[in-house]
Model the fold of this input.
Amino acid sequence: MSAIAPAPAPGPDPAVPADEATRVRLGASRGTPGVVLQRLARDPSITVRAAVALNPATPPEADHLLIGDDDERVRVLLARKLATSMPTLDDAQQEQLSAQACQTLLLLVADEAVRVRATIAEMVKDLPNVSPDLARRLAADPAILVSAPILRFSPLLETSDLLALLADPPHSATASSIARRAFVAPEVAEAIAASTDNAAIQILLENPQAQIREATLDALIRRASAQPRWHAPLVHRPTLTPKAAHALAEIIAADLIEELSRRADLPPETVAALRQRLTTQLRGKTPEAAPQTRATAEIEAEIGWARQIEAAGGLTEDVLLKAAHEGNAPRCIALLAVAADVPAALITRACRLRHPKGLVSLVWKAGFSMRAAQSLQTLLCQISPTALLREGPGGGFPLGSDEMRWQIEFLGQPQ
Done:
């Protein structure tokens, strides 16, 4: 319910019919007098009040009454109507809106229901003609559903606004949302790069519209040896100096050195040096070995992170499912290995063998459910939906505990 108390219901009004269907039609009609719509905004029927909330002809006084409606659904409809009307207004209407409906939207931004605030944010996220104060308040909302669309899309957030939000983030996804913007100013990119938010930095590097200064990129390359997931985005940056290319070649796997040497913007002498390094790195190895080394390094980096969240009590199934939903295979392997207290090699062997029984058994040992096991079979073992091992009766595991222990022992046998 909104923090604003609803106005008390008035007594019977002969101008308002007793039949609910008739009142709904009146509430939805553009031709209904404003004084009647004000009466209907207090109607005991939610259907009537919803019709008034959706009516573009409802006067501001009635809209203001609906801000305090007891039912969240009515407030959501009101927010959607007001936010949707903004792109169609001309200059004269815009001036009037600023004094009336925009003020109503600002009040709705304070609504305690996340759904109401998120509706406004989604509707105005990329509009240039809303109040900058409205955009800033939505951007600072502690609920990700509310602030993330504004942080990512709103053209009304200035560089100073973004820097302030990065300095005092409303939630953990603030930097990641800003890093996805269609344009990221150099100052903003530098602030993200200076943080410890490795996921946001990866998103920043993957964004070709992020304006990353040469010094900032050099600093990230120096940190990248411990962050294998940054390597490919660094190699694919739109602009890369010869100095940066040489520094990258010192830490990346052979397959990425090969990609780096094919860049058309590097001078011939840099390309020759990269190809020489590639030849040296592959000496004594098969070309297939390099990607495997890179994948192993990614898993090892994720294991360190997984151990940290386990120590903090945050290694939950929801964290695992989020990584699976994002397609982050190294993170899933690391989380499963730490939760099951087994070497990551057991899990990668099950993946390589495309062995669903072994993977399901490891999920069981980790204390997760078949819901997680089904997601991981698809992501890690690339099992088709028709071949998945599915949950047993009551949502349990389809294998017995003795068989699952045997499957884990089998995976741990010397190869």
